Task: inverse folding
C-alpha cells in the first residue's frame, strides 16, 4: 500500500454518484393489501461496521470496549490543532478483504473527504469519510430465506472514522462525552434498495453479520455498537416502477428492532398516502418500548454537509498484487460453505444455516465429525442441543470453547460403539462443561457408567419390572403399544440409563409373551 499526493483539483473531478438509476429486484415482492389497494415495501440498508483492528483509523490509540471513559484518546482523536492523520494499513486491509468477500470492485485509487456537521461527540466538527470515490463499489450478497433465495447488490463500502459517544443518562441536566470510540475505523456498507420486506432486511443483516465474523473484519456485536444499521424505507403501489419518498430510521442496534421498525414505518407511510397526505423525506428514530418510529429532523442533503477533499490526506493508492494476495487468503466463504454442508453432509438448509451463522460452530462441527466418525446429523444434534445449551447457560463462545472437539468426539465414539447410552453421554458432557478435562472413556471408567453387558442381569431386571406392572402388561397385550415405553422407562431408571433401549424392548416383549395374562388364570 502506498500513499501519494496529487493535485487537489484533480481530486474534485472524480465523483462516484450515489444510486445511479433504479435497481429493481427480480424476486416476487411482499405485498401489503389494504382496503384501498396493494402496496410494495422498498428497503435499503446502511450498515456501519467497526473494523476489528487494535488501533484507530488515523491514530495509534487502542480500541477496547467498556473501558474507562476518555482513557484511549490521542491528541488527533480530540482534534487538537496541528495534529495530522496517519492511515492505519490494517484497517485498509480488512476493508479490502470485506469488499472482496462481497464480490465488490476494489478501487486501487480512492480519496478521503471531510463531511461537516456539528455534534458534541465530534470534536473536529467534521468526519473524514470517502464521499466521492470510495474504496469498494458494486458488490453483492446472497440471502437464503425459508421460501426463496435472493441476491442483494451492494452499492459501496466507504472507509470512515467513527464519532465519540454521548451519554445522556448519567445526569438529569448534563450530557457527558466519551471519546474512546472517536476515530475508530468504520466500514459504511450500503446496499441498493433491493429488499422488499422486513424479513428480507433481517436476513440481509444476519447474513452480513455472519460474513463479517467469518472474515474476522468486524465482531458484529450489535449490542456493543460494533454493527449499527440505518434503514431507508419507502412504499409504492404494487407493480409500480417509481419509488416513493423514503424515510431513514437511524441507529438500529438489533435485528428484531430493525424488522419491527420497517413494518411500522411501511404501515405509517401507507396510511398517510391513503389519506391523501404526502410522506416527508426525514430522519426518524425507533422507540423500542412501543415499536414505533418518531421524527428526529428533516433529511439533510449532500450540500448541507459541505463536502470537500481532505487536505491532510493524500489519495489512497493500493497495489493490485496486494489485493490479489488478500483474495487468495480468503478461503471458503459462508455461502459456499452453506451449499457444501447441504450437499456433502446432507444437512437441512436450516441446520446448515445454524452452523454457519453461529460464530465458531462450523469449524467445531467439522472437527468433531472428523474425529468421531459419526453421522453428520448426529454430530449436528449434539452440538446444536447439548453444546449450545451449556454455552448459552455459561455465556461462552465456540470461538474459544471450554470443551474441546476431542472430548465431544470421544463421547460420540462410545455411543456409536454401544459402550454408553445417549443419556449417559449427556451426563458426561455435563461433567466436561463443569470443568472435567478428561476424555469420555476415562470419565465413564472411573464413574462405572458403562452399559450393562451381562444379559442375565438385564433379563432379571426386565422380568421384575414386568411382574411389578401387570396393568401395563395387559394393555400392551391388548395392543396399546404406547404402554411399552413406560415399561422400558422403568428398566432404564433401575439401570441408571446403562441398558440399551432397543435390547430392553426385546427382552420385555419376550417376558410378556412368556407371562400368562391375568384373565387366563
Result:
Amino acid at each position: 500500500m502506498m500513499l501519494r499526493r496529487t493535485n487537489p483539483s484533480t481530486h474534485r473531478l472524480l465523483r462516484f454518484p450515489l444510486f445511479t438509476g433504479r435497481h429493481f429486484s427480480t424476486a416476487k415482492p411482499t405485498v401489503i393489501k389494504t382496503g384501498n389497494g396493494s402496496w410494495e415495501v422498498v428497503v435499503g440498508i446502511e450498515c456501519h461496521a467497526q473494523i476489528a483492528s487494535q488501533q484507530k483509523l488515523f491514530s495509534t490509540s487502542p480500541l477496547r470496549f467498556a473501558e474507562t471513559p476518555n482513557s484511549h484518546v490521542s491528541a488527533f482523536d480530540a482534534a487538537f490543532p496541528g495534529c495530522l492523520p496517519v492511515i492505519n494499513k490494517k484497517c485498509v486491509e480488512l476493508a479490502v478483504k470485506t469488499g472482496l468477500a462481497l464480490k465488490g470492485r476494489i478501487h486501487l485509487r480512492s480519496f478521503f473527504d471531510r463531511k461537516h456537521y456539528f455534534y458534541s461527540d465530534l470534536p473536529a466538527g467534521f468526519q473524514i469519510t470517502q464521499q466521492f470515490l470510495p474504496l469498494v463499489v458494486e458488490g453483492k450478497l446472497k440471502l437464503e430465506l425459508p421460501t426463496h433465495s435472493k441476491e442483494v447488490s451492494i452499492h459501496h463500502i466507504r472507509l470512515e472514522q467513527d464519532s465519540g459517544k454521548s451519554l445522556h443518562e448519567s445526569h438529569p441536566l448534563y450530557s457527558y462525552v466519551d471519546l474512546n470510540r472517536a476515530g475508530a475505523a468504520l466500514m459504511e456498507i450500503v446496499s441498493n434498495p433491493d429488499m422488499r420486506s422486513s424479513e428480507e432486511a433481517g436476513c440481509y443483516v444476519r447474513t452480513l453479520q455472519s460474513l463479517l465474523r467469518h472474515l474476522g473484519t468486524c465482531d458484529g456485536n450489535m449490542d456493543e455498537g460494533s454493527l449499527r444499521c440505518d434503514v431507508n424505507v419507502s412504499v409504492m403501489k404494487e407493480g409500480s416502477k417509481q419509488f416513493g419518498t423514503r424515510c431513514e430510521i437511524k441507529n438500529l442496534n438489533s435485528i428484531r428492532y430493525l424488522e419491527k421498525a420497517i413494518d411500522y414505518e411501511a404501515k405509517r407511510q401507507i396510511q398517510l398516502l391513503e389519506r391523501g397526505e404526502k410522506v416527508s423525506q426525514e430522519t426518524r428514530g425507533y422507540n423500542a418500548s412501543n415499536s414505533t418510529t418518531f421524527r428526529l429532523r428533516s433529511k439533510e442533503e449532500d450540500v448541507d454537509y459541505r463536502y470537500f477533499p481532505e487536505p491532510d490526506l493524500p489519495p489512497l493508492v493500493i497495489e493490485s498484487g496486494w489485493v490479489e494476495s488478500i483474495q487468495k487468503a480468503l478461503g471458503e466463504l459462508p455461502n459456499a460453505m452453506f451449499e457444501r454442508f447441504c450437499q456433502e453432509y446432507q444437512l437441512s438448509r436450516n441446520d446448515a444455516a445454524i452452523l454457519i451463522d453461529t460464530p465458531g460452530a462450523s469449524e467445531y462441527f467439522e472437527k468433531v465429525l472428523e474425529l468421531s466418525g459419526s453421522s453428520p446429523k448426529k454430530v449436528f444434534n449434539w452440538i446444536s442441543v447439548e453444546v449450545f445449551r451449556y454455552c448459552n447457560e455459561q455465556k461462552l463462545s465456540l470461538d474459544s470453547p471450554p470443551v474441546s472437539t476431542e472430548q465431544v468426539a470421544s463421547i460420540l465414539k462410545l455411543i456409536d460403539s454401544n459402550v454408553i447410552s445417549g443419556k449417559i453421554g449427556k451426563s458426561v458432557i455435563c461433567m466436561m462443561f463443569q470443568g472435567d478435562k478428561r476424555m469420555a472413556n476415562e470419565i465413564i471408567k472411573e464413574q462405572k457408567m458403562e452399559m450393562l453387558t451381562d444379559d442375565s442381569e438385564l433379563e432379571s431386571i426386565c422380568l421384575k419390572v414386568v411382574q411389578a406392572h401387570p396393568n401395563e402388561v395387559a394393555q400392551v397385550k391388548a395392543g396399546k403399544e404406547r404402554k411399552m415405553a413406560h415399561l422400558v422407562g422403568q428398566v432404564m431408571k433401575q439401570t441408571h440409563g446403562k441398558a440399551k433401549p432397543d435390547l430392553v424392548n426385546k427382552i420385555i416383549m419376550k417376558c410378556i409373551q412368556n407371562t400368562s395374562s391375568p384373565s387366563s388364570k
Observations:
- The chain is about 40% helix and 20% strand.
- Confidence is low (pLDDT under 50) at residues 1-27, 517-521.
- The CA atoms of residues 234 and 244 lie 5 Å apart.
